[in-house]
């Protein structure tokens, strides 16, 4: 599907914490392809393992994505405003409109999709200090290419990395069990995801987005904060 610049739908959205497992899984498969794989690293492409690699997603012109990212990189505006504009530009692309309509998304789901997109786009703002890159640290165990988060400039102990974010979706008991399944019906679906446990809610959550690539086995404490 072509992402023509004419007659584009204008979607409205606002940040949200309200997400569900099924939508977040689909949205992350789509957005990680657009905002990680299509931006890439030149000769060695970044590959994000999908929740469901068999899922068919709309084709998006790589030039349209690069135009949005390049505008964000060149932005002189504060990160919040620049990222918001980048998300608006992304939502204006025809394949994105097709996706949102095909999935029959209501406004809360559009809000969730746009919020999750902002997690990835925020990495490209010039005020940021991290990037998604390759790592071979776990290849001997997994037999596949892995991704990690690297600092692009020196960081000090205790520094808050505000652009390192992810999205959470509450898991029902049934969804939690489904993610752990290893039977033949699910063998083709690569279970590369993060499930985190909330002590306060006493529930497991699906966790996707850039922060999913953090190497939590690194020495030193790591503290995550819930934000919108």
Automatic annotation (TrEMBL):
Main location: nucleus
GO BP, sorted A to Z: methylation
Signal peptide residues on this chain, from the entry's feature table: none
Keyword Nucleotide-binding belongs to the record: no
Single GO MF descriptor: histone H4K20 methyltransferase activity
UniProt name for this protein: Uncharacterized protein
Location in the cell: Chromosome; Nucleus
Keyword Methyltransferase: yes
InterPro entries cross-referenced by the UniProt entry: Hist-Lys_N-MTase_N, SET_dom_sf, Suv4-20/Set9
Swiss-Prot/TrEMBL keywords: Chromatin regulator, Chromosome, Methyltransferase, Nucleus, S-adenosyl-L-methionine, Transferase
GO cellular component terms, A-Z: chromosome; nucleus
């Amino acid at each position: 599907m072509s992402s023509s610049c004419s007659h584009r739908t204008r979607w409205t959205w606002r940040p949200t914490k309200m997400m569900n497992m099924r939508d977040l899984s689909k949205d992350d498969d789509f957005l990680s392809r657009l905002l990680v794989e299509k931006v890439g690293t030149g000769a060695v492409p970044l590959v994000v393992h999908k929740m469901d690699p068999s899922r068919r997603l709309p084709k998006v012109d790589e030039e349209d994505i690069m135009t949005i990212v390049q505008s964000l990189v060149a932005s002189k505006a504060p990160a919040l405003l620049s990222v918001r504009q980048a998300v608006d530009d992304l939502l204006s692309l025809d394949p994105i409109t097709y996706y949102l309509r095909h999935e029959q998304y209501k406004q809360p789901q559009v809000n969730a999709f746009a919020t999750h997109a902002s997690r990835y786009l925020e990495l490209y703002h010039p005020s940021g200090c991290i990037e998604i890159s390759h790592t071979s640290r776990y290849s001997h165990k997994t037999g596949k290419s892995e991704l990690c988060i690297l600092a692009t400039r020196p960081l000090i102990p205790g520094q808050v990395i505000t652009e390192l974010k992810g999205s959470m979706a509450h898991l029902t008991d049934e969804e939690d069990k489904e993610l752990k399944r290893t039977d033949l019906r699910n063998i083709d679906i690569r279970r590369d995801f993060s499930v985190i446990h909330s002590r306060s809610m006493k529930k497991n959550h699906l966790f996707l987005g850039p922060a999913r690539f953090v190497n939590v086995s690194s020495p030193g404490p790591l503290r995550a904060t819930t934000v919108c």
